Amino acid sequence: xxxxxxxxxxxxxxxxxxxxxxxxxxxxxxxxxxxxxxxxxxxxxxxxxxxxxxxxxxxxxxxxxxxxxxxxxxxxxxxxxxxxxxxxxxxxxxxxxxxxxxxxxxxxxxxxxxxxxxxxxxxxxxxxxxxxxxxxxxxxxxxxxxxxxxxxxxxxxxxxxxxxxxxxxxxxxxxxxxxxxxxxxxxxxxxxxxxxxxxxxxxxxxxxxxxxxxxxxxxxxxxxxxxxxxxxxxxxxxxxxxxxxxxxxxxxxxxxxxxxxxxxxxxxxxxxxxxxxxxxxxxxxxxxxxxxxxxxxxxxxxxxxxxxxxxxxxxxxxxxxxxxxxxxxxxxxxxxxxxxxxxxxxxxxxxxxxxxxxxxxxxxxxxxxxxxxxxxxxxxxxxxxxxxxxxxxxxxxxxxxxxxxxxxxxxxxxxxxxxxxxxxxxxxxxxxxxxxxxxxxxxxxxxxxxxxxxxxxxxxxxx
Length: 463
Description:
21 strands, Threonyl-tRNA Synthetase, Chain A, domain 2, alpha+beta
């Protein structure tokens, strides 16, 4: 109507075509019908100019109104303190309350520019467009995420100072429980450097530096080498820069503490590899860091008391015990091997003839694979023309080893195929050469049943 009053026309077919194109783009990554319908509604909101204003940098609660009801589980507000997931930081949780209406927010997402979805469940009442509500986030969880997010920036700076100035961020996750930081590097970080990184971050925390934010033109940011950013990400013409003194300058839209001292403390939980050339550090802050330290202290004191040494003497005592354990394990294996080989003559009575082939298939008890192979070699010396299959139990698993004399190899008997068929009965597998092979199995209780397959194999090959 407004267009006609100004003497303008509207190409409705072209408008509808563009709207359909927008819907297709919005649901390109969606698979279910319900999700497609939801994205269609979001595309309509974008086309109509409906927007949510995020005011959560300065507020954790506000009076607002519902501007869109996607369905009973997803609402859009005019203004909102809820931070939508982005930049590695998880979306806020909290609640919405109005006259005769309550809604528990489990997650906050931003499926399109200007659209902030509050995802959760209705506690009572029915949401309606225009309804006035009070929106309040879970302030404790937000506080934890603010601490973890700022600590991620400090960790990024510490890695470049301590390990390598060329390190680049490869991903991150900021939750209420911990932080995760992925970065490009080719090898594990030594424990000494991890300790220095912890010290660097905690030193910046104790300095209680103010965390400042400002808006800058993207073009200016790209010319400033001090500012860290993942320029593969999509940015607008103006971006938000979070600065922590001279220590860290990064592009970031997330929520942060006002002073680094608000983080409390910082502890590295783990360092690991997640892909070729990509490392990952997980850490905790605040009370989680305090709890982590307390648990470590409790473990240390417990070990100290159990081993009757002072805490600083634990490394030496553990090293001594480890050496003693390795030596004891060697002695046990030696005794097991001697016990097995001492019974070789008794095994000779168990040789049977299968298709005129001397076959010995025997279970020799508890033995590791290397000792079992020794038993097999000594049996080969005593029964020169034969097919041998020996089995043992090692740490709850089945071990098998087999050998076939040259004359029977020429007849088509294959040690690798034989031991593979035997091990399969014990939920295992293996193989090897025609004259010698080995295998393992998960179910040691089936060893005796598995050994019976040896004669079945010979019957099938030599019939």
